[in-house]
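Protein 1 of 2
SEQ + STRUCT:
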Amino acid sequence: MKRVASLLVSSLLYSGCAMADGSIVVWMTDSRPGYKKWLETEAAAFKAKHPGVKVSVVQMSPNDAYLKIPAAAAAGGLPDVIWTTYGLAPWLDGMKGGKLADVSDLIDRLGKNRFDEDALKQWSYRGAVACVPVARTPTYLMHRADLFKKAGLAAPESWEDVIRAAQKLNDPANGKYGIAMPGKTDFSPRFAYGMILYSMGGSTFDTQGNPIFESPASIDALKVYKQLYAYSPPGSLNFGFSEIQRALAQGRVAMTISNPSSMATFQRTNRDEGSTLALALPGKVNRTIQNQRGWCIADGKNSQDAKAFVEHLFSTSSFAAYLDAASISSFPVYHDQAAYDQFQASNETVKRFPGATDFIRRHTVGTMPGIDGVGLTPKSGDLISSGQIESAINRMLANDMSKQETAAAMQKETLRLLN
């Protein structure tokens, strides 16, 4: 174990942590290939304007980042720039070797009034904006509108509708299933559970910051999760973000719960123009997951070069390229109409599903399950990186735990993390 740990630290020293003057390291904590291609293109463009600065891009999954960030800090410091979710900002800032730079000067240069007020509020920590907000990533029910129409099903407006549709469209004998539900211990079960819970009017914390995983709404959300899982393909215990999107794109399932990047995956994989996807937000209230993403900058000798690179990423051409790489998985919280118009005119997913962006624009209210009611605190990173929600759901599905036992496990582990 010590050898593994030392190898991890050595690799981080080589490829992950801040480098010598004249070089900055950027961690993209999203493993989709479009992001790395975009960043490497922008790194080359930035170097052409700043010959003395080299930008190295390191890409990883969010789950890998939860392990590598503390190891990087322990090895001597964070990378210069990190793409991450807002809930991790205080976690980064609080760990030894992890202090974040003040980005208020950068936000002022970019134009504070060009950011959504809600985004600046959600990223606020200790009286300042912790990192530079870029986009919000919502979660919805994705459903095959063509299959619904063929089966005589209306667009689902309640979770009872979703369950009935999953049952009707489930055809295991022909390799077709009603819905793909994630069982893997990546972030997907957290978001699927959270979306169901939020749309029922529930939360994971009350307004005083107390965890309420054993509330009636949470129990009901877990009940719906288990009911839908019965119509998910075999092997769904190993389904995470990529697997549920792939199952939808390949036509194995009629629905899934994910962010709108499912539509981009569908567009690339399923070229049958008669196959159509639609977004839905079943439930009592217009509320879903809203995972804010942005750029955090380490407080170190390279922070000014790092700020200059992030500022470059907000230029109109670069921001339009970012929107194309994200391909409607994220909705911008920074307003550059010229960049957005370029994206709308050129992106193939938007062209195929023209109503998607309007739906996303109208349905973005929400926050992150596991930290709602808590906000940004040094504990918020632990509440996300620990995976207590997804682990409990995985055990519920693997061991046929009751919804009450699952809720109790979430509650117990969350209280432990808070104390």
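Protein 2 of 2
SEQ + STRUCT:
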Amino acid sequence: MAKKLLALALALMMVLSLMACGAQTEAPAETPDQTAGAPADTTEKTNDVPETTETLPPPPVNDWATEHKINDGTETAEELYELAKAEGTVVLYSISSRCTKVADSFNAQYPGVVCEPYDLGSGEIAEKVMREHESGIQNCDVVHCKDMDGSYYTEFVQEGIFHIYYPADIVEHIDPSLRQYVMPMYIELQNWFYNYELCDEQPINSWWDLTKPEWAGKFYFSVPTSTGDVTASLTALTAYSADFAANYEEVFGEPIEYTNPWGEENAVYELIWRLSQNQPLEAGTDAALEGLSLAEEVLIAMGPSSKLRNNASKDWKLKEIKIEPYVGIPATNVLYIVDNCPHPNAAKLLVRWMMGEADGTGEGNKPWQTLGGWSVRDDIADTEGMATLDEMNIIPEDPVYVYEHVSDLIDFGLEITG
């Protein structure tokens, strides 16, 4: 059931570093503990998804989660702190080096409960948590990750390995559409960027503009041939083929014609084909974004919105493009509690802390309040100088759809590249 994600995890382990910015370099030694409890019935999901999506049942809530009130959400930080002091520790596996800042502020706020952060790659987290789960070993309490391709939701949440904890006084500040599948913390995007020093306004408005002859050889784009955030976002966009077809007609003044050699009548597949035929530049993300920042002519490149921070730290010149019809799905950073974790009350306390606590002012959320990231909370303001999410034309996350269809898009990309 987890073969797909484990295969990816093992591959990623070869190239992802195990440490960053002072986080611990090794996860804690594995020691046996009790095994996971059996799933129990839960209520039906009510979210709307594209018609092409094959929906899955709601996540299971087992006896352990019920016993430890993971599915309750009414406990206050004060109540959890008293319980957490008896546990003494909470272990965090995170995809960000900023986890060390979270741990420092947590340890200062809650003496007697020590947060141990481990900065790991996403694939490393998946592989280690799965191995521990299958061995009846419990080390990790809280996982911070992204799940753009739906693997975590499908293979961990749906299988009862991860639980979603919704503190009631915090989720009331989060749009329900953002928390259908996850406990979201903050959002990043895969954006198109340009050099703001070379343009008074964004040089393109639509994805289709990059298929025009005048943009040949002036944009960075790699055909999707493997899993990753861009591939996941493109896969999600394939559910909106009709909107991309309508946008094509707005740009070119005529209905779309499908020219790809495989006869794929999906406008996003056709878009990818035409982009591949318009002499795209290829480079790694950082090289492409640095390249457009240094270039004397206008270039376009895609990358994580978090790279906007490099405008200050590396003197880049990035400005995000509000692309039509959609930029893609949000790259939501999410929090899970691991099934049968050894410190469940400290885990709930840490989730609250990383979310900014009840009023949104907690120091645990401050490391994520930076240029290129959007809080999911309505009581935390966006960083100054950023466009709003409403302006960025995002579509709702649908991990089920992406999980079911990402391999099809990769196969199409492999056909293009031969």
